[in-house]
Amino acid sequence: MNLHTTPHNSRTARTTRGTRTTRRLAALAAVAAMVVAGVQTGSAVATSADGNGDNGGASAAPTTAAALGINSSADRATAIKSAQTETASAAKALKLGGQEKLIVRDVITDARGTVHTRYERTYDGLPVLGGDLVTHTAADGTLKGVDKATDAKIAVASTTPKLKSAAADARKVIWAGHGGKPVLAFETVKTGVQKDGTPSRVHTLTDATTGEKLYSYEAVKTGAGHGQYSGEVEITTTKTDAGFELTDGERGGHKTYDLDQGSSGTGALVTDDDDTWGDGTAGDRQTAAVDAHYGAAKTWDFYKSALGRDGIRGDGQAAYSRVHYGKAYVNAFWDDSCFCMTYGDGEGDKKPLTSLDVAGHEMTHGLTSATADLNYSGESGGLNEATSDILGTSVEFFADNASDTGDYLIGEKIDINGDGTPLRYMDQPSKDGSSADYWDENLGNLDVHHSSGVANHFFYLLAEGSGKKTINGVDYDSPTADGSTLTGIGREKAYQIWYKALSVYMTSTTDYAGARVATEKAATDLFGADGEELKAVSATWAAVNVK
Questions:
Q1: N or C of the chain: less Cβ packing under 10 Å?
Q2: Domains recognised in the chain with CATH numbers
Q3: Where do the Peptidase M4 C-terminal domain residues begin and end (predicted)?
């Protein structure tokens, strides 16, 4: 989530409108053949995982989520292991080169038996960055389609560098994520601290033949009890010999730690004597922990019941949360390296960054890494950030919490701007002064937190439609680029379509044109090629100028 904008390496959108349209129409020609389905004060009431009391836990995944692809963690592990034994035949079927090998990252089987297998590639033993792909295989074994991060042939003249990297820890890779001819490259990682105090881990790709800098991105993704935001809520804790701890045994063992203004490690696991946590104010250190713990639980429950996903990686294992990071740190972030969410306390009279939509946003960065792994730069970076806003907002609606009702405003509770305004507006993103409402050829040059506006706008329009309306007491007025009037299909269908597109059709290099294709395929899978949902998806992308 963007709180203080962090600049990222960006790229210029090079694809012409005609090429974009041709590519989309070509992809849509195959859609019909790929149909696989018919479709702020109060006290925290703790629920311990020792069997005492209701866990307030995740409900079983409903039938409406079935076509998204439901795999238990055990089934997923078995499917991945099985698919890995077949990678040689899969590479042959895909006509990959003899020096290429496939590594299975994920396998999702949907309600109609179609198997979506996500692969990474290697070339002569080297990782191919930007070479990921997803195959879609019907229940009878027929290959129905493939989505690739690049269509380029993976080959280089030599895997022996002509130059020597200055960094001792550089690794050799094949870089194929730029849309051109793959090249031998060095990948280096520089760690440090960003201007606002967020940890930094910058990955840089350098041509191993010419020394040219090819690409760079920031790997740490920022976001912008008695909970300060969530009010009196039930949280799942664990009883110990000494009292209670913030460990959620019902949701993969999620733990919440207090960093005590530190900036490394995990700090101390939050504990309590009587299982009553926080007092609803920032003055009690447990309050922020309650909100973070609750937000993680609600996000887990949303993934489980609404999307049929067993945790961030689909493996039943939880991430962990850290609160009270740094001194006057006005941000929150997700870090793949620790598989954790981290929250600052704000500065002065600012509030801790632990509101429900922020928690959902940060956990969803982990979900994106575990699925499409959208590059955090250019248009794909905007889609990465938008995915966190889209599902973070969906978590807020899903939680149905009277103290933090669902809305299409991002970070409205934490008041980072100091004037009561939210960080971002999904109905009309440009109201924040920086985000884009509609696609244009320069969109990829914006910071990813601002290029995300187009996808945020798409999601709002798809769910709610255009024009003036009031939802949960908040007034919205969403425009369209083409002057069209849209009727929304509802939030549930909208987030199901987005998640399916993310989990089985998008790749690391997906741009906005690719997102349109991916969501049209997802809508076809879920609701049929003749469904109103597919028509709505297409009309809504046109309304934000993605054609």
A1: C
A2: 65-148 (3.10.450.490)
A3: 372-546
